[in-house]
Design a protein that fits this description.
The protein is α+β, with helices and mostly antiparallel strands and 105 residues long. The protein has three helices and four strands. The strands form two sheets. Strands 1-2 form a two-stranded antiparallel ribbon. A two-stranded antiparallel sheet has the order 3-4.
Length: 105
């Protein structure tokens, strides 16, 4: 279990841990992320908290759900509101024009 910050909703903190694991390659594209039951056991949170964390990742385009099978990491990293997300989740490098979003001269 992790030590939760009291001023941040737990679902956000669980989602952040999962985001970091995806960015670090712990969960590779098309691999299954932990289930609600697994998240409740690992983080000591309620099922509703784990479900909300997984919904947040899906809404961000980091995961997709296969009914009856679970949640999986998407094939390609999504474009963040600030630029492209690289394999490490650190954003795009202004020095490398090939990483700039289309139309950002």
């Amino acid at each position: 279990m992790i030590e939760f910050a009291p001023d941040i909703p737990r679902w956000r903190q669980v989602a952040q841990v999962l985001r970091r694991r995806i960015a670090d390659g712990m969960y590779m594209p098309r691999s299954r992320v932990p289930s609600v039951v697994q998240l409740t056991a690992e983080f000591g949170v309620a099922a509703a908290t784990a479900q909300k964390a997984l919904r947040a990742l899906r809404a961000e385009g980091l995961t997709y759900t296969e009914p009856g099978l679970g949640s999986f990491v998407t094939q390609m990293p999504p474009v963040s509101q600030f630029g492209l997300v690289d394999a490490h989740g650190s954003g795009n490098s202004p020095a490398d024009p090939s990483l700039r979003p289309v139309g950002s001269g």
